[in-house]
Amino acid sequence: MTGNMGLRERKKARTRQALVDAAIALFASKGYDETTIADVTAAADVSPRTFFVHFASKEDVLFDDPPLKLELLAAVLAHPGPDETPAQLLLRAFHSVLHSDTDLMGQSERVRADLILQTPALRAGAIRKVLEDQHEIVRALLDAYPDTLDPVAASALVGAMVGTLIGAITMLYSDATVAARLAADPQQMRAELETAITSTWHQLGATG
Amino acid sequence: MTGNMGLRERKKARTRQALVDAAIALFASKGYDETTIADVTAAADVSPRTFFVHFASKEDVLFDDPPLKLELLAAVLAHPGPDETPAQLLLRAFHSVLHSDTDLMGQSERVRADLILQTPALRAGAIRKVLEDQHEIVRALLDAYPDTLDPVAASALVGAMVGTLIGAITMLYSDATVAARLAADPQQMRAELETAITSTWHQLGATG
DNA sequence: CGCAAGATTGCATTGACTGCAACGTCCAGG
DNA sequence: CCTGGACGTTGCAGTCAATGCAATCTTGCG
Asked: How far apart (Å, rounded) are the C-alpha atoms in residues B184 and A188?
């Protein structure tokens, strides 16, 4: 991957990475709002104008790679089992992503998560991304059940899943003691999310 | 309410309303990004500086009154019935809000909803507001079940409800034919949301 | 009337973001 | 090898949102 590009592209990738690293370091030490683009570009030793060649906005530098494994999710959604309900399919897709090799509690993930949770502007940006992804999930789900599922129901279903996860994750990260416990054991995070989903859905089903 | 304030406050309120009206009119005709604060203040016949006396940001002028009836929600949540589960309480609170006299599909609501759905910057802002509200709902729910409910479960539960609603509402508004049908009959919106919630939750409960 | 509080305004400044044109470097075809 | 075009980078000028400060004008009250 990285090896077979020309010197030109390697150089470009290096400046991009320098910007990301500088930005995260500065955001973590000084705070997001207190860090200017000029600060970041100075630390990365490039011109301020260059920042916007690589990123569309200040917050975009933090969302370099997608946190959600959309492709994997879509792949699972593409093949519903016989007699599998949409909700069951969604749950199975979620499990696939959860048990893939995604790093959920790595070092840089922690720093990023802290920044996002602490900065209102970043919170909004992160959720915006998630909502965009949500739309694609809905589309994939509708493709899986083209005749039997109506759009509103599909969107509500996906919204419920995403909402459950966001609710759980938000609380897991914001509670300091819980966050510390999770940081110690990455496996714990999977278990937490697992029980959050199953227990929540079970309770929701028992309202009728 | 409006009558017993002095001339001073009435004037201030009038200025504020003039700004809101001018902003919505201009946003609707020219688009949000293409409308500057200077345009709005010129149309409202006040100084540009005055805008920020009334609103903290450009998007705030659209979120003048909260779309979610938080107080009502909190009031219901404060009095759980005996043997009522958290999920049941949440559902009951949602019903209360839905059947209050809130105008869900009024003219200005439609314009606002369209603007928010079409403008990325506004989507982010709306979500920020919803997340703040969500946090308060979680707190109210935890207060209702201080000993038996753990924070992560509560947050996941509320996230599921809010997520379900956002998913349904988004699709209801973005589908043009559906939106037209709803605009004709305001009562329809309530029914639509009602079935979205109950049917979604029922399906989620049948995943185990 | 006269004064204090509050509403509005002007001015200056910061910082995100954009369009444009220039300048250099890399890479391919001859 | 070397030359021309593609591409990464940069500087410059400009727009616009947002903020702090001080001045001005209006309202309400003694």
From this structure: 50
Amino acid at A145: Y
Q: Report which residue type is found at A199.
A: S
| Number of CB atoms found within 10 A of residue A34's CB | 10
> In 3D, which of B9, B20, B11, B59 has the Cα closest to residue B43?
B20
- Confirm if B133 and B70 have CB atoms less than 8 A apart: yes
Closest-CA distance of chain B to residue A8, Å? 34
Our CA dihedral for A88, A93, A98, A104, rounded to 10 degrees, sits at -130
Distances (CA, A) of A37 to A19, A28, A41, A52: 10, 14, 6, 9
Contact across the interface for A200 and B163, Cβ inside 8 Å: no
On whether the CB atoms of residues B73 and B93 are closer than 8 A, the answer is yes
Nucleotide nearest to B58 (CA to C1'): D17
By the 8 A CB rule, do A200 and A194 touch? no
User: Residue A158's closest chain B neighbor by CA?
Assistant: B167
Q: Which of A61-75, B97-111, B188-202 comes out lowest in average pLDDT?
A: B97-111
User: Which chain A residues are within 8 Å of B151, Cβ to Cβ?
Assistant: 171, 175
* b/e burial code for range A65-81 (CB count within 10 A of at least 16 → b): eebbbeeebbebbeebe
User: Do A95 and A107 contact (CB within 8 A), yes or no?
Assistant: no
pTM over 0.85: yes
Query: Which of A128, A155, A207 comes nearest B170 by C-beta?
Result: A155
Output the pLDDT for position B1: 44
Digit-coded pLDDT (tens) for B111-122: 888 899 889 889
CB contact under 8 A, B163 and A163: yes
- With a 7 Å cutoff on the CB, does A10 touch strand D? no
For the record, the structure tokens of B98 come out as 């839905």
Share the mean pLDDT of chain A.
91
The secondary structure of chain B in percent helix, strand, coil, rounded to multiples of 5, reads 75, 0, 25
